[in-house]
Structures are given as C-alpha cells and as structure tokens.
Specification:
86 residues, mainly alpha, 4 helices, 0% strand
C-alpha cells in the first residue's frame, strides 16, 4: 500500500478531515443541530472502521468497505434531519 506501516494513521487523518468538512458544510448550509448529531454518528462509525481495519486481512477490509453503505445512510439521515428538525 502507498502509506505502508502508517496506513492506519493516514486513513484516520482522512476520516477526521472528512467529518470536519461535512460538519462545516452542514453548518454553512444552515442545517440544524440534528445534522451535527448525525455527524457524531458518522464519526463513531468511521472510528469503528478504523479500529477494525487490518492491512493483513483483506476479507475484513472488504467487509468494512461494504459497511460504507451504512455510512451513506447515516449521512443522508443527518442531512434529512438537519433540514426537517428546527
């Protein structure tokens, strides 16, 4: 892999940047507090993925990749809640 032994560190950094930018985007769009609660759920999901990730276990990593379906559902639910709940 490109990042070698520091892969988990790099992925964690990308996850932090992702959550911060999504949270800022929701704030910039004027979404309510409900969106930020959803972002907390997204952050927990990504933290779980990072904890379970193991470069030596491609089968597990594929399972994590497929779990991104739930990440998308959390993000969509956060956006919907942030729009509807004021």
């Amino acid at each position: 892999m490109r990042f070698g032994d520091q892969g988990k560190l790099w992925i964690g950094g990308f996850y932090v940047a992702t959550v911060l930018l999504w949270a800022w985007g929701g704030y910039a769009m004027g979404l309510s507090w409900a969106y930020q609660v959803g972002m907390a759920a997204v952050a927990v999901h990504l933290a779980w993925q990072l904890k379970v990730f193991d470069i030596q276990r491609p089968d597990r990593n594929f399972m994590l990749f497929r779990a991104n379906l739930w990440l998308g559902a959390l993000l969509a639910a956060a956006a919907l809640a942030g729009t509807l709940i004021r």
